[in-house]
Design a protein that fits this description.
Length: 245
């Protein structure tokens, strides 16, 4: 199956930013969506926008750090639409801070969300994809997976893990599955600087406001990877503002 129309896509981190823009992009092109995030009100607002415009989406409150929640997300796709074509693992948190601040809860949250969360998604979707003999993983990393900038050590490490896990998965996926890494640079979302230490947040927000690209740019890149014919795997996309060094 090529194109986006009719595909069943489960997407985490759909309540704002890149996930929200991706949901709207895919819905406009006829995908059937199962949208996951923790903030139910924000998630429902995205579902409502899509359905008001004639699209198809259902919401599913999930915390990606919980294995059972990802099983519910992929299960909802199969129950409602009979299959799952794509899992977009986009949920993330950019709570960056210098190591000296010892914000160990934030370190744990980034590991749990980006690494354990991704593995929870793989664990939930892979058996479905194997049964169907088709499916696609789209994993959202960051340019931080390629270049570490202070004070983003933990964030960058978890995003580098997303990159490595994605390549490992691709190598084992065989001819029926597709595995795509999408690494955005500065993107204009509310997540930039959220939960970060004061100085880091101020700098991130300054850079975002100066150079960021719109989240629709990342949504288009994800859509491009999804719309390729079955036998074509877009393995890796880095998409960043031209002004980002
Ligand atoms: P947002 O904060 O707008 O979006 C983050 C999304 O992830 C929200 O929908 C949030 O929903 C969800 N989320 C966070 N933690 C969890 C969790 N434990 N379980 C389920 N959902 C969760 O930021 P962005 O759109 O910018 O971020 C999206 C992704 O893009 C992240 O992985 C981020 O690291 C990555 N990225 C962003 C860049 C940028 O400049 N904006 C650059 C490079 C990468 P809720 O709180 O409702 O659960």
């Amino acid at each position: 199956m090529s194109g986006i129309k009719g595909k069943v896509v489960a997407l985490t981190g759909a309540s704002s930013g890149i996930g929200e823009a991706t949901a709207l992009h895919l819905a406009e092109r006829g995908a059937r969506l199962v949208l996951g995030a923790r903030r139910e009100k924000r998630l429902n607002a995205v579902v409502d926008r899509i359905t008001e415009r004639g699209g198809t989406a259902v919401g599913c409150v999930v915390d990606v750090t919980r294995r059972a929640d990802l099983l519910r997300l992929t299960g909802a796709a199969v129950d409602r639409f009979g299959r799952l074509d794509v899992l977009v693992s986009n949920a993330g948190t950019m709570a960056v801070s210098p190591f000296d601040e010892l914000r160990q809860d934030d370190w744990d949250a980034m590991v749990a969300t980006h690494v354990t969360g991704l593995l929870n998604g793989i664990g939930a979707a892979l058996p479905v994809f194997r049964r169907q003999r088709s499916g696609q993983f789209v994993n959202v990393a960051s340019t931080a997976a390629y270049v570490v900038k202070s004070p983003q050590g933990v964030y960058a490490a978890t995003k580098a893990a997303v990159k490595v896990l994605t390549e490992g998965l691709r190598q084992e996926s065989g001819p029926d599955l597709r595995v795509t890494l999408v690494s955005p640079g500065f993107t204009d979302t509310e997540g930039v600087g959220k939960g970060a230490s004061a100085e880091a947040a101020a700098e991130l927000v300054r850079q975002r406001d100066a150079i960021a690209m719109p989240p629709s740019a990342v949504a288009s890149a994800i859509g491009y990877a999804i719309e390729q014919p079955d036998g074509v795997d877009i393995s890796e996309i880095v998409v960043r503002p031209t002004a980002q060094g």
